[in-house]
Amino acid sequence: MKTNFVxxxxxxxxxxxxxxxxxxxxxxxxxSFSVTAESIEMLTPTSLRAKGNVVISGKNSNLHVDExxxxxxxxVITIEAEQxxxxxxxxxxxxxxxxxxxxxxxxxxxxxxxxMNSGFVPVETRGLTTVWKNEELNMCLSVTTANGRYSxxxxxxxxxx
Length: 161
What we know:
- The structure is a single chain.
- By secondary structure, the chain is mainly beta.
- The protein has 1 helix and 13 strands; from the N terminus they run βββββββββαββββ.
- Strands 1, 2, 3, 4, 5, 6, 7, 8 and 9 form a 9-stranded antiparallel beta sheet that branches. A 4-stranded antiparallel beta sheet has the order 10-11-12-13, covered by helices on one side.
- Strand 11 (129-134) and strand 12 (139-146) form a beta hairpin.
- The protein is globular.
């Protein structure tokens, strides 16, 4: 039985959050990924905190953590996750290797999730273009968004990151 409902706009992704009674879990959907947790608290119009058995699910993976802070800044959604007393458990549903070509035309939130799941972190955002870096792959990408989709994906030299 739902006790309240909050709907907000989180940057470019629509967010809905609901609180349930008797220890059931909250669930929030953010673009192409969702967050399920024992509690979800909207901190600001562009950030939320999920606590207790947090599961962040995307198209290609699930992230299981104890606590997560999710924020949006300049169209980039960032997930800061904390795991207490357990190893971080990332389960890949799709074991394909990373290809920048797969990002072209992707919805922005889905593309961000794919980049994060592949080890990329945003390093700079200017307007609708974000530079992503993956230290492990020694790779940088410039991603431009138009109409909510990745319109241009350019591989940069690692030195230009």
